[in-house]
Amino acid sequence: MQIQNAGVFASLHQAGEPLLLANAWDVASAVAIEAAGAKAIATTSAGVAWSLGVPDAAGLGARRAAEVIARITAAGLSAGVSADMEAGYGDSPAAVSATVRAVVQAGAVGVNLEDRRDGASLFGAAEQADRLAAARAAAGDMPVWINARTDVFLSGACPPTPAGVAAALKRAAAYQSAGADSLFIPGLVDLGAIAELVAGPLPVAVMAWPGAPTVAEFTADGVVRISLGSAIAQAAYGLAARAAAELFTNGTYDSSANGFDYGTMNDALQGLAC
Fold first, then answer.
1. What's the domain range around 183?
2. CA 216 to CA 18: how far, in whole Å?
């Protein structure tokens, strides 16, 4: 079944009809997202980390990342699950291999692997290519979709100028040769620059947020995948803060209206508790 789901997941990356991902961080959020019509589920490392009391990019670790994937895939969802594994939870190709094996064994059919070494630097293109090659090898016979994330724009290392686009294209070529299936370019929403990247060696995935181009605009540019990253998790925690503040200051409860139906969620999770 996992191999079948992996094939379906790969087929959803299409120019003209991109895969839309509203990222989940636990079983309940994945259930809610699938109920809304999702064709696939992807995790957000930030949301997962926050739900476990850990800052994003601060050592969530392969074990805890894989445990969340295992719980989501055990929930009996029809959609395949892609794992955000940050930078692989270790610099070396061996560390990346161990993380990929863990999340694939947990049921993932796709992975994100980013090229940000830490808060201030990126792996070199060749170094990241070695890490991506290790990820491909670790997946073995499972046709895992590898979404190679480059932070050249998100980190501020490159603006969306011709030089910045050229730097991203250089990485795309190296990542494609290493076995990546798509290039993920969070932080870039300039449609002209995205169109240039779409013409490069890898299909392009983007991250959207309020004020970003619409799905229709990204689609017209040839993007094959659009995700929301941590936006839904941030919105959920924002709602918690607003509802609490309303209770404490006004003594009213209107902010918590229109929530997910209690009975629907409870029924969906029946039999999953360990």
1. 2-268
2. 10
